[in-house]
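Tokens as discussed.
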């Protein structure tokens, strides 16, 4: 579903086969695996969750990729030498870090002088119905306090210029920001859309856990009905928007 974001990061960071690349908070393997396959650059995958590292390693082995290494670590404490990488990328991760300022400082530290970074974060909720279709319905079942705009969350850096400002404050140069509009597409039915949304969000799962079985059933039915507007012939298709912020050390 997020392949267009990976393409945007590769373009923004101008990655080539001769670059040493670091993927911070790579989740289940992307964009590291695509970079290793499509470009052939040596890349180090990192994530703080052991299961994610193990899953990504298995995928790399299955694909016969020999240009990938794997490290379990948090983005705020990268266990690499200063100036170790030509490029650092992070896809939909930095807005979830407990301390993104520390992560930005670490990313800049491990970059070589003149090295490049590219970070992708979600744009506004309004421009991403994949999220707000569910959130609007869930809010009728579970009372949610007002969100702290600086707390970890999907839309922490949705405000234009916010993440770019943090990078400049940390000493990054040639900071640019662009909007990437694309479609979130997958061969999913409306019922599967609800299941996938639950899988992708710890917060959503916690809210659902507080409901009775009857409420969960009603909630799922409402989400499926609302999500059906974004499905055609068994194919899920949501318009989506991210910000890609790039810079140099």
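Sequence:
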């Amino acid at each position: 579903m997020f392949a267009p974001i990976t393409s945007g990061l590769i373009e923004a960071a101008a990655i080539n086969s001769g670059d040493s690349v670091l993927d911070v908070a790579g989740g289940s393997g992307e964009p590291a695996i695509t970079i290793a396959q499509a470009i052939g650059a040596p890349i180090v995958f990192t994530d703080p969750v052991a299961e994610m590292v193990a899953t990504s390693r298995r995928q790399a082995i299955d694909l016969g990729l020999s240009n990938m290494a794997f490290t379990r670590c948090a983005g705020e404490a990268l266990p690499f030498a200063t100036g170790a990488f030509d490029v650092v990328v992070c896809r939909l991760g930095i807005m979830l870090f407990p301390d993104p300022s520390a992560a930005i400082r670490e990313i800049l530290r491990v970059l070589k002088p003149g090295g490049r970074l590219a970070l992708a974060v979600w744009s506004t909720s309004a421009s991403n119905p994949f999220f707000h279709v569910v959130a609007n319905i869930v809010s009728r079942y579970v009372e949610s306090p007002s969100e702290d705009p600086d707390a970890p969350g999907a839309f922490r850096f949705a405000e234009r210029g916010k993440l770019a400002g943090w990078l400049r404050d940390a000493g990054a140069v040639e900071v640019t920001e662009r909007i990437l509009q694309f479609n979130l597409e997958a061969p999913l039915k409306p019922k599967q859309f609800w299941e996938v949304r639950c899988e992708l969000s710890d917060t959503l799962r916690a809210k659902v856990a507080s409901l009775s079985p009857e409420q969960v059933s009603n909630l799922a039915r409402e989400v499926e009905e609302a999500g059906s507007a974004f499905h055609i012939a068994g194919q899920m298709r949501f318009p989506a928007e991210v910000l890609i912020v790039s810079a140099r050390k």
